[in-house]
Amino acid sequence: MQDTAHSVFGIFGNVTALFLFLAPMITFWRIIKSKSTEQFSGIPYVMTLLNCLLSFWYGLPFVSKHNLLVSTINGTGAGIEFIYVLIFIVYAPKKEKTKILGLFAFVLTFFAAVALISLLALHGNTRKLFCGFAAAVFSIIMYGSPLSIMRTVIRTKSVEFMPFFLSLFCFLCGTSWFIFGLLGMDPFVYVNNGFGSSLGALQLILYFIYRKNKGKGKNENESNCVVSVELGLSDEPNEDKELSKTNGAQNGHV
Fold first, then answer.
1. Nearest CA-CA partner of 46 in 3, 95, 86, 6
2. What DSSP state is assigned to residue 223?
3. How far is CA 254 from each of CA 36, 78, 91, 186, rounded to the nearest angstrom?
4. Could you report the per-residue pLDDT of 97-135, keeping only the tens digit for each?
5. Exposure of 154 in the CB half-sphere (CA atoms within 13 A)
6. Which of 23, 74, 90, 99 sits 20 to 30 Å CA-CA off 216?
């Protein structure tokens, strides 16, 4: 019975995470049509790629047992994020392209180092601890990224820049993997996703508190810059930038 429930929550987590991974497609379709990255940032997608690669590696049977569903969704997510990053690099201006290429190279180097160290130098439970810790740390960082959007909602008393369905699926995704981790007794899955589930719940609470004010805070957002969790962004406030951060930061995590 427990094994069945474990699989069910893992499959549901795959579905909800896939929705979050595909959410930025609207942003990238706009980039392709305009042949410009405009004010969008590529940083969330590169960092989400790293998170997916580390979680994919952790879920493999020779690293941790009974976590293959973690690998399937994160392997898929890594492929999707890789495409996003390539599109961004193609259409980004020269300065931004150089920055993203450098970050992209760091991500691939860091992942390769984790994979090689775990394969060649570590074995058994030590390998699981090393890979699990690396994956959990970046997963928590990714889950914490929407805090800037929540701060915007509280300050403006408007949910203009916090789409309901993204918040809902962030909550459902985190909750699914939290329960999956509990059933599998894996702290590297349930701790970070418990954090993500809690943040998703807070976003939903904020949405229902300020839902009637949707759009009323737009002018204030246009006149006040939100401090971004991303490094290297310009100070120019922009609705599309906020939506880009929300879409990028709320990609599926495991």
1. 86
2. H
3. 31, 12, 29, 12
4. 999 999 999 999 999 999 999 999 999 999 999 999 999
5. 9
6. 23
